[in-house]
Design brief:
With 545 residues, the chain is of the alpha+beta class. It has helices at residues 2-24, 36-46, 62-77, 83-91, 93-102, 125-146, 243-254, 258-267, 332-337, 344-348, 364-371, 436-449, 491-494, 532-536; strands at 148-152, 166-171, 223-227, 233-235, 273-275, 283-291, 295-299, 302-305, 308-309, 318-324, 341-342, 357-362, 376-381, 393-395, 399-401, 420-424, 431-433, 454-457, 460-463, 466-468, 470-472, 477-481, 497-498, 502-512, 530-531.
Length: 545
Amino acid sequence: MIFLFVVLAYMIGIRIGTYGIFKKLGVAEPWKAFVPVLCSMEWQRIIDKPKWWTWMLFIPGVNLFYAAGQLTEMSTAFRRHGFFEHAAAVLFAIVYIPYLGFAPNEQFYAAGGVKPGDKPLKRNVIREWADAIVFAVVAASLIRIFVAEAYMIPTPSMEKTLLVNDFLFVSKFHYGARIPNTPLAMPFVHHSLPGGNTKSYLEWIKLPYKTLPGFQQVKRNDMVVFNFPAGDTVVLEDQAPAYYDIVRKYAAANNVSYSAAREAIWSDSRFHITARPVDKRENYIKRCVGIGGDTLEVREGVLYINNLPAYQPENLYTPYVFVLKPGQIITAEQINQWQIEDMSGYIAATNPLPPNHYVVRMTKKNAEELRNSGLTEFVGPYSLPKNATQPADVINNRFIYIANIFPNDTARYKWNVDNFGPVIIPKKGWTVTLNDSIYQQYDRAIRVYEGNDVLQRDGKFYINGQETSTYTFKMNYYWMMGDNRHNSQDSRYWGFVPEDHVVGKAWFIWMSFDGSQSGIHKIRWSRLFSSIHGRWAPEDERYTK
């Protein structure tokens, strides 16, 4: 409240000062100083800038740089062009601008502080560089917010389609650029300042979800960058596992309820927990396999959308089981050639394998090469049996947590990554009938993403204090999965991705490095400037109706 009062006082001070400046300059209608758009356009005319620049006032983040520039330009027009005078024009505009407007000895010269025929004001090298840096920051911020942002693939969840150390550009304009929720933020960093966990943003101003018009919707098969939906709460000491998984692991390990585990973790001095707004949650990249209104199901490792087999990417990296012929071995060179990744131990820890059976990750093409090598008796797709236990994961050798498959209700839903669903993805305007079982699938969407207060009592539902048996969704939702199907933390673990979490569309790869190589061989030359969707995500919807 105090902050809002200060901002209001600051703006009123500028308006009053502007009124004085308009009167001092003989503007016919000085009352325009109190009308935002008209005031800005008149201000632009006075300091000799294009009137259309006014639109920058409506861009969160950019408008702060723009307004600061206009205040310093007005200061310069009064021949107040020193560093401290410009700083005062911005930081103390509540009194500085009224002073320029009403002090009789303060004379307006002209835009830039010079009249025709006068020598231009000279700025020192430091000021020239400062102006150039400010301009570069504003321009780069505009591009990053509204056009494209650089992104690096940090994990193997999209192997072998998108590889670790692929550097790509993410388009903001395809789906419509999202207005930042937290416009007061340090440029060019995400949620934390370099070298630590200090927040890079202020939450003094929070804006609702809004986007500029785009020219396409998120489609099935698109590779999308989005904010991690379960990343609203974070344990700073170990951010790899989701906070909610940490709580569930603690509850299971100590045989206590979820709420008791949560209280224990929050009271543990070893942990520092923070909340993050939507636009400051971790960025993930996955393939959108389902959109609002779709019915999604995984049967024996095969994805179905609306009861039809979904598109399978060419480089889908999935588990295969094989049995070697007696006396045969697979050499390290062959493992590298066929890009085999052994996961037998991971599977066998909770789901024992028959003798001489090995489970590995590989592509369909490489599995065929292994089958034709003469080394094996059998090669075929592998999937966890229906109702089988989902193997546990080890994150950074620190947290070993139970496998949490959405909707995290093992009493009702005995799902795993290979046998999952069916589940209906919510669509804006779709109404779902609520019961104890169905609600578990949509609890987080209704309560967290759409901001409702939900109470369950005596078999009845109360949403925002009103008894109801149905709920109508306000947003579209998506289902995201990695192409590396057994090594991807995706919607099968944490559920739906709301439309307000969508950052942009993966556009093209501009650089790619192979960390296992050296020198010039480190660069994956064939991937440079590859159009992602033209190469790995054909825009066709043949598999849905």
